[in-house]
Amino acid sequence: LGILLIAIWTVYTIITKDNFREAITFIVEGIGITIETTLWAYAFALILGLVAGLGRLSSSVIIRNLATLYVELIRGIPMLVIIFYIALVGVPGVVGMLAQLGTIFNDIGLPGVGTVLAGIDNQSISMNIRAIVALAVTYGAFQAEIFRAGIQSIPKGQMEAARSLGMTYSQSMWFIILPQAIRNVLPALGNDFIAMVKDSSLVSVLAVRDITQVARLYAGRSFRFNEAYTTLAVLYLTMTVALSMVVKFIERKISPDRP
Predict the structure, then answer these.
(1) How big is the chain by its Cα radius of gyration, in Å?
(2) Non-local CB neighbours of 215 within 8 Å, separated by 6+ positions
(3) pLDDT band at residue 259 under the 50/70/90 scheme
(4) Helix or strand or coil: residue 258?
(5) Please, where are the H alpha helices in 76-126?
(6) Inter-residue contact 133 to 91 (CB < 8 Å)
(7) Is 48 helix (H, G, I), strand (E, B) or coil?
(8) pLDDT in tens, 121-133
(9) Most CB atoms closer than 10 Å: which of 45, 46, 164, 225?
(10) Cα–Cα distance, 89 to 124 (Å, whole number)
């Protein structure tokens, strides 16, 4: 009821007040960047999370410790710091390493690969790409724990039964364990996606033109802070509430206790 009242008030305000109508017209231009950044970052985070989650359960001490190091390291650093570090330190460092590697390839007689690597320019990597990488790396660590918990929730007897039927460990994990684990953690993954939509506002510190950055630009240009940030808050609320309803619908559909 409260959300419905806010929606009615918002629609009424936009219709009756020119300032709010101008603000929302200006700010909605950033929704595309917000959605694009979130979708790409979440897709890469799922891959990182699944790999790290499997690594946390690996029988190899090296792989298990590397996955644990990644999870604990990322979870121990604030997201804003990670965004700054990856965008302004990590990416330039990787580009410099690739340039050196390109020089080595040129020296040993592989000019094709060397020229490509040496030609990568730090300036050519947009802040949007850096923001996507930062969000993916951060959320990959959290999703690793979700996948790990989901895999461990499956009884060990199912893996033993699959192996007794002649399936390899990889086949048992891919065809037997993971489908059930993903089903169990789907609501948690959905909640993570909603959280990423909200946390995507942090990429505005890199001047990525998402709705937060566009709202800041509008407020700075017009000095209409009330209109700018009220509109911004309502837009985020609308997206997160809509996504929450979708997640709850999916959760009811996959719940074994539903009628």
Answers:
(1) 23
(2) 23, 27, 30, 228, 229, 231, 232
(3) very low
(4) coil
(5) 79-85, 91-107, 111-118
(6) yes
(7) helix
(8) 788 889 999 999 9
(9) 45
(10) 15
